[in-house]
Amino acid sequence: MESSSVFSIEFGVNTLAERLSRREVEAQANLIEKLEGVRVAFNALPHITMVLNRQRQIIFTNSALLDLLGDVNIETVLGVRPGEVLRCIHANNETGGCGTTESCRTCGAFFALMNGLQGKLDCQDCRISVRAGDSFRALDVRVLANPVEVEGQIFSIVTMTDISHEKRRKMLERIFFHDVMNTASGLHGLLELGRDVEDLEEAKHLLVTLESVASGLVDEIAEQRDLIAAENDELKVTPAYIRSRELLDGLVRQFAASDQYGRWSVRLDGRSDNATFLSSPVLLRRVLKNMLKNAVEASPPGAVITAGCRKTGDWVEFWVNNPVPMSREVQLQVFKRSFSTKGEGRGIGTYSMKLLTERYLNGRIHFTVSAETGTTFVVAYPLDNKEWKSEEFAG
Question: Pfam families this protein is in (predicted)?
Fold first, then answer.
């Protein structure tokens, strides 16, 4: 991005990593604290509000941030950067911390903060993946950075507003007013066509098509229902024993059958293992369908998409490859909620793959990219999920 290169040239990577000492930070904090009415005014604001120095360290904040963090006082966050205090999953990728990693170059919050510290009022939306125990949560925030000068020193007043509900509403509007409406319209058209069908074989073929379209409509709605439940920690997992190759083969056949115009070719790797393991068939099928769907959408007409599964030690892996290498910019954002290469209001496929795999199926997900082989997404699950085991599944 052009903005990131400007920041790198003007500030330099080493400068971006620089921090003031604890004593210097405390002196700046005292400078802000003594401003008349500042604490009362800040604490009256409903959104997270911070004052940052030129090194992007927190020197003052309101109670909204402290309440979010739990049993924390202002002394704990002094000198810390926003991404670090919010536990952004990328904040510690480099020794310099928040603002110095490669992922920061696609972060709206980073650009807003840097512009604010250059004396420019800036507001940007940002997707942040934060650690929550052993898993992660996705935050959509709107970051407003407002420069301010106090006794000759430049600071930035930064507010962060949670816009997750706004993003979710837009996503659901897109789904129900676009995708579901298109499917429902197709269903209506097929029913209209059925009025004039007299040939028995043609009628049977039409019924099969109707069943497929109706099933897709129900599945689309169920997927969004389950995604919302998953984000709210309300999703119920019903485990059962699964045969890996049989499951994947069925999904590959579904994709092949749905391609009426020969736009793609989805194939099962003949070397795939048929391992037996305990997991949720419904959620796993959802993950694998999104892997196949994303591979198809990322590929040009006529491309070959290959899927396979293999047993590796105590794990079973599923993989889907498409021949198009994913760009570095997309790689840095691919698992973020609402990020998509297909336009505003999309982008839940890869996010839901990670959410369901890591939070509910006790698995792990990653991808590899190369000019020779294209892009390959891989999910892995334990053969034996011990916490799910009960007498019902024993033996």
Answer: HATPase_c
Which domain-ending residue is among 164, 179, 204?
164
Produce one character per residue of 334-345: b if its CB has 16 or more CB atoms within 10 Å, e if not: bbbbbbbeeeeb
Angle between helices 200-231 and 180-194 (to 10 degrees): 160
* CATH classification at residue 289: 3.30.565.10
Is 132 within the bounds of a domain?
Answer: yes
Q: Do 249 and 353 share a domain, yes or no?
A: yes
> What count of other Cβ atoms lies within 10 Å of the Cβ of residue 116?
25
Sheet holding 264-268, edge to edge: 264-268, 303-312, 315-322, 374-382, 364-370
Unique residue bearing structure tokens 């941030």: 65
Does residue 173 sit within a domain? Answer: no
Q: Which of 104, 99, 108 is nearest to 81 (CA)?
A: 99
Instruction: Among 138, 164, 190, give the residue marking a domain's end.
Output: 164
- Are the CB atoms for 129 and 143 separated by under 8 Å? no
The answer to whether residue 150 sits within a structural domain is: yes
Q: Which domain holds residue 20?
A: 13-164
Please tell me whether residues 34 and 156 are part of one structural domain: yes
> Tens-digit pLDDT profile for the chain (395 aa)?
334 444 443 445 556 788 999 999 999 999 998 888 898 999 999 899 999 999 999 999 999 998 888 877 888 899 999 999 988 888 877 888 888 887 888 888 888 888 888 888 999 888 787 876 666 677 888 999 999 999 999 999 999 998 877 776 666 666 566 667 777 777 777 777 777 777 777 777 778 777 777 777 777 777 777 777 776 777 888 889 999 999 999 999 888 776 654 677 899 999 999 999 999 998 899 899 889 988 988 888 888 999 999 999 999 999 999 999 998 888 777 776 655 555 444 446 788 888 889 888 999 999 999 999 999 999 999 998 776 654 344 33
Q: Domain count of the chain?
A: 2
How does DSSP assign 82-122, residue by residue? HHHHTTBTTTTSSTT-TTSSGGGGG-HHHHHHHHHHTT--E
